[in-house]
Amino acid sequence: MKPFDLSLYLVLDPELCAGIGMVETARLAVTGGATMVQLRDKHASTAGMIETGRGLKQVLEGTGALLIVNDDVEAAIAIGADGLHIGQDDMDARTARAMIGPDMILGLSVETELLARAVDPDLVDYTGVGPVFATPTKTDHKQPIGFDGLARLVKASPVPSVAIGGLKVEHVAEVFTAGAKGLAVVSAICGTPDPEAATRRIAAEIRKVRS
User: For 2-[(2R,5Z)-2-carboxy-4-methylthiazol-5(2H)-ylidene]ethyl phosphate, which residues are the binding ones (predicted)?
Assistant: First the structure.
């Protein structure tokens, strides 16, 4: 498995990114310092995911940023993505790991301490913890956990965690104080007038907090 850096994890949203597209948004964000990019499109067909994913793989080539595919294991394999991310309502981690093999990164969303403690580190490489805040980009999300909840879930998780859910540049310090290895952002980059500049602001804040 490739080493990975969760610090600035962009989750692409097809509607928010519609102005310039997901591939161009990702290219600009990675230029600005995004370390991982997740392709998430709940309405796309597998063929559509593969097409977008191949475009993303092309622009991420040589940057060091990794490509993660949300939920669609067939697309992740066909694209040759660096990883797969699944939720609690998707396939179970054991099945996912069996399908993607030992080398691909596997991320799992957890919303409660019970779910975080149940994570098997032999199968799962990182947890996506949240939602910290309610967010319009994911209408079916669970109850927001806040930063206190984030700290509890991060502590309960046997693998590194990335925080998600309504996070912006002003939340960076609290995310890292809670013990997370990074923050996953959607609207803080997607759909902004200048995704590269928006990413640079977050990346600069991360460097400041970590130093």
Answer: 135-137, 166, 186-187
Question: 127, 119 in Cβ contact below 8 A?
Answer: yes
Whether 40 is catalytic is yes
The single residue of 7, 109, 157, 161 carrying the catalytic annotation is 109
Q: Is 181 a catalytic residue?
A: no
Domains of the chain: 8-210 (3.20.20.70)
Q: pLDDT by residue (tens digit) across 179-197?
A: 999 999 999 999 999 999 9
Question: How many angstroms separate the CA atoms of 30 and 27, rounded?
Answer: 5
pLDDT digits (tens, 9 = 90+) for 88-104: 998 999 999 999 999 99
Q: How far apart are CA 128 and CA 117, in angstroms?
A: 13
Query: Does 45 participate in catalysis according to the annotation?
Result: no
Structure tokens at 97: 């790991």
Residue 41 is labelled as binding a ligand: yes
Q: What is the pTM of this model?
A: 0.96
